[in-house]
Amino acid sequence: xxxxxYLTVPCMAFAILAVCFSARVPLINTVLYVIQGLVLCxxxxxxxxxxxxxxxxxxxxxxxxxxxxxxxxxIYLLPNMLVTMALIAGTVYLxxxxxxxxxxxxxxxxxxILAVLSYAKVMALTKED
Length: 129
Description:
It contains 5 helices and no strands. The model has no long low-confidence stretch (mean pLDDT about 85). By secondary structure, the chain is mostly helical.
């Protein structure tokens, strides 16, 4: 999990900061967007671990079977993508009626809860025999 965070967080932070600086986004929004990116990376990492632990494939002959042909990849990718797209669609819809700072804070809380639940599931799965 830590290795995944080492890979995704710096790229995410650089991309968000570059977009925010070029678009002249206020500082408070920029900070919230970076926090939102951190929480999304944490959720993605924890959910990937849940899928990897539940659908381990230990009878492989080469790495391609595990990485590209395993069930864990499909089970990780589709729900992660659908949840993220639903949250984005909800954000765009609510953005018409509610302040963007409130929506960003709400999104941070929702994805944070999903990340904590996924991490708790990972810890529970690692304790099982």
